[in-house]
Amino acid sequence: MSFSGTTNLPKWLVDIRAKAGFPAHPEFPGLVIEQKGSLDAPSTRLVNLNQINDFVASKAVGTVLRKLLPGASQQQQQPSSGNTTTQPQSQPAGDPFKSLLEGLIKRR
To answer: What pTM, to 2 d.p., does this model score?
Structure first.
């Protein structure tokens, strides 16, 4: 967390910005909060609301796609040993967008 800003006591004004990150969630943009105006009643706003909304929306879309496209989030992993046998694929071959469309139609 970091803070920066100024306080002008003769004019009774404040201009402060606070930034907070979330180490447990490094992809989250964090929070940037700003306070400006009169010391006894400053205006407070969330500066990076659009970034937070974009992050939440992208996570929601990813979750919906994983539910509608079973196996889409599973990645094929190659064996780490020198073994050259191939693992059978767990995903059926086909167009994932066609599967998504069929899944949406079936849910109606």
So the answer is: 0.55
